[in-house]
Amino acid sequence: MLKESKFELGALLITPGARKAISYHEIFQAISRHAAGDWGDVSEEGAKLNDQALKESGRLFSVYESSNGIRFYIITEANRNTTTVLLPDEY
Fold this sequence. Notes:
This protein is of the alpha+beta class. It has one domain.
């Protein structure tokens, strides 16, 4: 279930590594959290930067961990045209 979105996600992209390593269910749960402004495991400073980026149309960056311990990122570009799910080594 998607939470209320605070911004447009644009086109959703999932890299091959993320698609292989993380279940779609967990990916879409994380996308829902990201869209609602829950930035996951970013630092306190990173969360503040994201909150500022919401107001100023900047790039949004979240970090999550799957149930099998794989960390992954979700990035929404400043223009809100795309949101990408990727592994750290695909960054």
